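Thioesterase
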Amino acid sequence: MIDGDKLKQRRRPDYVYHLSYRTRWSDSDQYAHVNNSVYYHLFDSIVNTYLITHCGLSPIHSPRIGLVISSWSRFFSPVSFPAVLNLGLRVAKLGNSSVAYEVAVFEEGQDVPSAVGGYTHVFVDSKSRKSTPMGTRIREGLAKLSIGHADVVDAKL
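Predicted structure tokens:
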């Protein structure tokens, strides 16, 4: 994992795909900020939105699915309700059957991330759960999330 100082230096242009998210009252914890566990929901939402809309993955019908084998997060500043967040996604490492994602959470109007985290998916056969190559369409879609790729995509959640 990259050290916290380097992660905190990330900016919006470091991420290829972006998704907006409006916080909900129920995202807040007893300290009036977005609960840490909600960030993992955000990570999962942006990754799966991208996989479904840009890689042709159907969680119900696809012959292969991605299973999370590891996850991590670094928190830099709290976010509180009501806030509009911008999630940024990029691929840190792309293998034959696995991919490591990095997600940044930016509060609207801020260029410094409130949190940066990610996880690793290993693609498996949807029935046997045995590791399998991710497939051409998924791989090509994920390759577009690599740093330096020209296409920037924005979406709403």
